[in-house]
Amino acid sequence: MTSARAEDEFRRIQREQDNLLEENPGHHAAVYRRALIFTPFAIAFLVAFSWTLRALLAGNLGALIGCVLLGLIAFALSYEGVAALRDLRTQPMRSSGPLDRVWTKSKFLVFGKSGYLLLNRRVFEIRVDTSMLMESGQLVTIEHWPHTNIVVTLHRDRGSSSMD
Known about the structure:
Elements: H1 2-19, E1 20-23, H2 27-57, H3 63-87, E2 93-98, E3 101-108, E4 111-119, E5 122-126, H4 128-132, E6 139-144, E7 151-156
Antiparallel strand pairs: 1-7, 2-6, 3-4, 4-5, 6-7
């Protein structure tokens, strides 16, 4: 009876491995890395923004351009930093359903490409080779961090069409 149970468990794991499209074993380190990179830069840009805002309020209209630019950059960095810090206090979650959209895009200028998935109004960054295996409408389950959307695992669900 134990060998039958072990065999069933082996088959279940094998089915999961067959449907596994992407796995990110360093996902926890990626969350820490984002927090360590974005948070100090966000603080630095918030300080610079407050300095230019003070100059603008003192009557220096030339500080307007710097204030707007630094404010936009500080907002973007703060958003990413806070999302990473929030993920440090949570656990990965699962999202399932049909893919709304799959696409690839160049990163910065022409230095590499990334694949992207849109699932339940959330955008996830995946490897390009994985995105080539995906199509819109395909049923997937993604285990990911809730605020930064860093992918832990990506599985193709049963009954889903495959492009093998």
